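Encode chain A's predicted structure.
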Amino acid sequence: MRIGVLTGGGDCPGLNAVIRAIVRRGVEHHGQSFVGFRDGWRGVLENVHEELTIESTRGILPRGGTILGTSRTNPFKREDGPARVRSTLAELELDGLIAIGGEDTLGAAERLHREHGVPVVGVPKTIDNDLGATDLTFGFDTAVSVATEAIDRLHTTAESHNRVIVVEVMGRHAGWIALYSGLAGGADVILIPERPFDIEEVCELVRRRHARGRYFSIVVVAEGAVPREGTLVVQEGKTDEFGHVRLGGIGHVLEREIEARTGFETRAVVLGHTQRGGTPTAFDRVLATRFGIAAADAASQRRWGEMVALRGTDIVLVPLAEAVREPKLVPDELYELAATFFG
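Encoded structure for chain A:
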């Protein structure tokens, strides 16, 4: 068999570990050969590719990012997109594709398979950990570790200066990174997209700490967190090819509002891309490797239209349609647990 591989969406620690595992497993156990497409679906649409071999994928396990490059290209934004995908597969004599990505990349893969018969296996990738049908996605553990270390460091400077520090972390639709890093880092307030916040309630939690003699506070906020309707105006940015608003900035909004409403000196720190850059944690390397091996096995069995997933401690196959049907959000009971430590 000859298989294409692509990485789409945001870069993520562990992508290279997946690529390495797919190639090693496929070549040595199934006699497969591999083509890597550059920059996600763009590479498939424009037939920009390179051969992937055991030699070309040596030494990439600890590397962050992706050796194939990535983009947020949507094949359905081009009128002839699906036809071009099929044409590229035919021209390169590929039996199928392994698509590594999040909700957008895998959503396109599922639609290409369902509507146009493109043979594809999915591998879940998102630091947001918001893909359904899998307990965890690789990259999440790394992002939480980076954010937690940052919160630990910010505690000392916040306490030294008696400041409120707002830490903005990633999380468009789901607040898993904010919740986990906030809990691990001892945050005093955690704001997530699933629970629209009231700015006055946030300020009251900060005031309560001051009343208790704790003159600093750490507020962790997911980039996709939104205020309750009518409580605060937040401007929206431009959208990408999948219709997602470009996020970032809620931290600075909170910085201004908290200081103006409480009189306490406040600073914002936006962690941004540092959360998904650099080397993956050991956990993410192992999970990504297991996903890659399972993907190569699934392709050899022609399990098209399915995605590898973690269920408990087992790697299983699930329908792509199930994986992208709806995002996996932070449940209320978990947020209420974290709220025990607010203020």
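The mean pLDDT is 94.
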